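pinging the channel bc i need a second pair of eyes. not urgent but kinda urgent?? the chain im working w is below, pasted from the shared doc
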Amino acid sequence: MFFHARLFFYSLSFFLVLEVICGEAVSDFLVSLIFNKPILMAAIIVFFLFFVFIFTLKTGKKISMTIIPVLLAFSSWGLLSLIDTSKEKGIFAFLASTVYYACMLGIHRLKLYEKDQIARGLIASSAVATLFLFYSVSYGVYMNFAIPLSILMILFFVMTTLVSYQYFQLIQNDNRIVWIYSAVIGIAITEISWIVNFWPFGYLTTGVIMLIFYYVLWDLVQSHFLEDLSKKKVVVNMALFGFLIVMVLTSSRWMPIV
């Protein structure tokens, strides 16, 4: 079953909030709040995230299942401020709401049946999409505002670890092991973020590059937990990694270093 009325209502509410943010007058108002009244702006964001948290907790009954939806809401909010045209903002709001619905549907199905493979796939896809948005908006804010790189790296470590934990706990019962592997991936992504920081690309390209690194590590750990890891799989992942990185580097616009 891929349609659920209550989850659809939650996703529609998510979409409408993002659509309100898309409005030109509202966007200008929010930008003015960021600079003139940051406390009020923070309160609005917290209010939005709180309702996403409550909706998700009501659906999944576990706090650990709220990580991806809340981070998705925050990243979607942030990335909207970096998109120029209203049409592109509207398309993005629809896509973000679709990802949110898929994640909530996966959480709901897992509550009914813990071994639902489709539900795991939905959450895995949502995790990948959410991290892409988070990496992109984080670099976008970092490039446009005077934010120390150390803070960016800490955020990457924390959020990557938490998102990885939410998914890996679905396929591995030992929480200690799940935390260890999630933290290892978080540390690796943190180190990669420091390296990518010196590359001459925009925030979206950087987000894609970070996601490629994450996906390869994530897939290897997942294969290990599912007892499906082999030398052949490692070689295939490395080959896929190399192909995707070369494709991104050769097709992206290189920004001049000033």
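so The radius of gyration is 19 Å. and The first helix runs from residue 5 to 22. — does that match what u expected or am i reading it wrong
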